[in-house]
Predict the structure.
Amino acid sequence: MFCLKRIFSYNLNWICRQFSASAAARGSQTPVGFIGLGNMGGSMAENLLATGHRVIVYDKVQDSVKLLQDKGAVVGKNPAEVAQQAERIITMLPSSPHVQEVYLGPDGILSAVKGGALLVDCSTIDPAVAIEVSKKASDKAAVFMDAPVSGGVVAAKAASLTFMVGGQETEFDAVKELLLHMGKNVIRCGIVGTGQTAKICNNMLLAISMIGVSEALNLGSRLGLDPKTLSSIMNISTGRCWSSDTYNPVPGVIEGVPSSNNYNGGFGSALMCKDLGLAQTAAINTQTPTPLGSQALQMYRTMVMKGYGLKDFSSVYKYLSTEEECETKN
Ligand code: NAD
């Protein structure tokens, strides 16, 4: 028994030494892989390039890859090829199945990952999938952490995102150092999956507040108030929130946000619908009452069915005002 304990302890020390060596090898100067160059990932990868990193990118959409290539990124043929060239890899993908494909698929990251590599998934996905990928990464001696973000496309461009990190405490400093090139706040929530938990709770609240702001501004507008005037009052009153003062859903109230760009870019209603679905699954599993979260899911699901899926989630204002016009005409 004593002998077995010694062998175990010796091997553990050896693994730790190897691991620290790999951690040092992926220091702040090593290349960074970036997979998923959409509304968020494109700007995040650009910010890494702008801060002097060598970035190896991959996306299924060639146009998105080309934009980054023109700015100096190296292009990988698939996630496996990115993993062969980078010890630190960030993924920013739409949802759980995409993350499973990119990590676990035949040409996925884990098919070629280097031992000791740091894998950071910034997508918003099911916490259970984050845990599944983490276990499989650990089988390959790599470290996986979830780090979903808040702040939207504006913060992604301005490198002022908030990251909610789930993963080993011993790896947090390395992750933080990397993420601070794309954001201002990096908060460790706990073990793997807890970043996702924080994110889906935040987004349930965001959807509810965006619907609330849209309802109020639509009512005010119907009563003859200029939405700009009403918004400026809300923003110094008790109704103030991010959906009213930073990401207002009425076109022309704030310049540079999706509502002033025909609801293009930004955070698609289909993605919000996905996050609300994740929140409802979590609520069912824990028997937690979330009546407004459930209503918000129904609202966004209906919007997706009516063709708003790719429009920014603030288009709930347009949806409400258009529905109302239809009702009035009937
Ligand atoms: P997006 O749809 O604009 O971008 C996703 C990118 O992933 C696309 O370029 C797509 O081509 C690529 N992709 C999909 N499958 C792929 C695969 N198998 N291999 C390689 N690339 C693949 O989405 P987004 O708005 O950038 O959001 C990304 C994630 O961030 C989502 O999980 C979303 O919920 C979350 N998020 C978005 C926002 C926002 O404001 N857009 C804010 C916070 C969090």
